[in-house]
Design brief:
Helix content: over 70%
Number of domains: 1
Structural class: mainly alpha
Strand content: under 5%
Low-confidence stretches: 119-130
Oligomer: single chain
Largest sheet: 2 strands, antiparallel
Order of helices and strands: HEEHHHHHHHHH
Strand order of the largest sheet: 1-2
Number of helices: 10
Distance between the termini: 42 Å
Shape: globular
Radius of gyration: 16 Å
């Protein structure tokens, strides 16, 4: 299931019309967000190294941040995210600067799952939360 869905997404992403058999990419992404909550899909994504496609789509389709957030509970996905320094920098910057509340919420969730928010918090805040 995961590989065939990624094949559809890749084909759609490469088409100038951003459609796959009359389905626009945003419809495919909404369906994929629902599927992403199943543990099988994030693991299949990690195993096939397809996370980079989603990272590439974020700027054009903010719903992808929600998909990555759902995936970011998976340890293998976490490793792949942490190893992509440019994407991590982008997430940290957007967490501070994005005016879109849904994007900020998803990014905060991703960073939380990666323990990034915990590390960037001042020491006094860490002590006050215990």
């Amino acid at each position: 299931m995961g590989n065939s869905y990624f094949a559809m997404l890749e084909q759609t992403w490469q088409q100038p019309s951003k459609t796959y058999k009359h389905l626009i990419v945003s419809v495919l992404l909404r369906a994929f967000l629902t599927l992403s909550k199943n543990d099988f899909i994030p693991q299949k994504t990690a195993d096939s190294n397809k996370l980079c496609l989603l990272m590439e789509m974020c700027d054009d389709y903010p719903i992808v941040y929600d998909i990555i957030w759902a995936f970011s509970f998976n340890k293998d996905i976490q490793k792949q995210l942490r190893s992509n320094a440019p994407f991590m920098s982008k997430l940290i910057q957007l967490a501070k600067q994005s005016e879109n509340e849904q994007i900020r919420k998803a990014i905060d969730g991703i960073l939380w799952n990666l323990d990034i928010n915990h590390e960037n918090r001042p020491i006094t805040d860490k002590q006050n939360t215990k």
